[in-house]
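Margin note: ligand = (2S)-2-hydroxybutanedioic acid.
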Amino acid sequence: ALRAAVVSKVQNNNPRSLNYVQPQASYKVAVLGAGGGIGQPLALLVKMSPLVSDLHLYDIANVKGVAADLSHCNTPSRVLDFTGASELANCLKGVDVVVIPAGVPRKPGMTRDDLFNINASIVKNLVEAIADNCPDAFIHIISNPVNSTVPIAAEVLKQKGVYDPKKLFGVTTLDVVRANTFVAEKKNLRLIDVDVPVIGGHAGITILPLLSKTKPSVTFTDEEVEKLTVRIQNAGTEVVEAKAGAGSATLSMAYAAARFVESSLRALDGDTDVYECSFVQSNLTELPFFASRIKIGKNGVEALIPSDLQGLTEYEQKGLEALKEELEASIQKGVDFVQKQP
Ligand code: NAD
Ligand code: LMR
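Resulting structure:
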């Protein structure tokens, strides 16, 4: 609550008047793909964080203007821009959290996996640079297909000898944000109270909202469960179709990614009560990566929360079994992409 108050004050007032409550702005965040549809609003939201001292914006083009523009906001962080591969190392040195929304988005008719051929190489190259320049940073992967790009990142980090599974996160926060919004709307709940865990992965049926675990406790008819589940699973496609060729979710994604960044920074800053859903290395199922609620601490993933997978409804249990084949294949595709390179 204190941080929320500070954020709202930073937005409304001169931050210099806030010395008495302002947390130390001491963390460095890099956004790779910062000139894009997600990157720009995400950079703006991260610029508003009182925990950030330095915001590094990297893209292959068009990032200088974004940084100049943002740097005029009178919030604590210093904004620097980095353009092209030759400036990537400098962008990454000393950074605590790296967020990757670089890559192409879907157009109507495409699956997230259709992005693999382009985005796999982009993520691989960026994570190689992270391994060389800031191997201890938290890495947040947004680029799709997340079910494959996170395993790609893990393999790259392993090859470089710096893989720490606790610090590699696939960003699935948007699935939770959507689930919370849709459930609150359907059940007339106060949005701020609603929390729905979403497990599995981040594509189609691999996105599995656990409506039975909704907080506050609420009952759904079978028809409501079916409709809400399918809507949450197809919410990305809903936006892709509405944008009609102009890309996929950017603003809600930036909002969700900023929440995940803020949670990570709070954890780094010593908050011991930070929980989010994320697609991470996992032993909760037989799959090597799995999205679930996790506890985040100073060193990254401090614990997976197994209780969400206990006491599932029959519908959820079926959904869990049904998603495993696709998720396993997507994970393996990512692993093979790195391991089978000449
Ligand atoms: P966009 O095309 O608007 O922006 C992508 C940016 O990446 C561009 O500025 C581009 O120049 C940059 N880029 C391309 N190659 C790069 C490289 N090698 N290094 C650095 N930057 C590079 O796309 P967008 O709408 O911002 O979406 C980005 C990605 O995020 C897509 O893959 C999309 O599918 C994914 N996405 C994921 C989620 C999620 O929930 N995880 C949600 C929405 C979108
Ligand atoms: C989303 O869920 O909005 C993203 O994964 C983008 C997409 O392609 O749907």
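Confidence is low (pLDDT under 50) at residues 4-21.
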